[in-house]
# Entry
Amino acid sequence: MARTIATGTDHLLARVEDRVGVITMNRPERRNALSHEMYSGIDLALADMRDDDEVRCVMVTGAQGAFCAGGDVKAMNESHTTGTGFRAEMTPEDRLADLQRRQRQVSLAMHEYPKPVVAAIPGAAAGAGLSIALAADLRIASPEALLVTAFASIGASGDFGGSWFLTRLVGESKAKELYFRSPRMTAAEAAELGLVNEVLAGDAPFEQQAMEWCMDIATRAPLALRAIKENMNRAWLVDLGTALDAEAENMTSTMRTKDHKEAVAAFVEKRTAVFKGE
# Structure
């Protein structure tokens, strides 16, 4: 039975089901473009899922056929033309501080989150929406998904960590091309570049396939998953010697867990291991 998480807004829905925490951006009339309410909702949902030992994997997705169109361009235009709306009255210094806070609240939080985070992309992921998808550990997509950096097309340079994540995924030259030229990538093209881990092209609805994909991760040993993500995130930032020493610490720690002993016993007994996060 699913458990609903109160996020304080209809713009961001959250629930826990079958050991998967599901976060859904929910502004389908704006292709799930980001709103002020979404940021605090994501913050609340992630905090709840962090403290829930039943949650082994987090899936971030969008409602009704889109992932996230990024910044709300219509709202931006209204703000520019009327001088009213969210952030319109802020000083440049306040706007900078606000964006820095929101980026850390979403992209940095997802990247540093102790549990695996999967972006399930049913349709358009554009601008900051794509950046948020890139902040996840893994990405799965519907065949109908479209990915685009979009920033150069609206006269902006980009935010929410897209340049950092994209450069690491596809290399500096290709990342610059994707930002400068802003091509629309199909799911298949994104998968070929390594931006998408798998395109889910089965007959079942995309969300059902995505849930099953995440549930497979959720069957793994949660303490090991946490240590693996920690190792991988660290690998970009340290030298090999430091990485080896830290890997050794996590390896010896995870091999002392009850989950490790259960996995070894299950292997010998030719049965499926049951992990409890202990």
Q: What stands out?
A: The two ends are 24 Å apart (CA to CA).
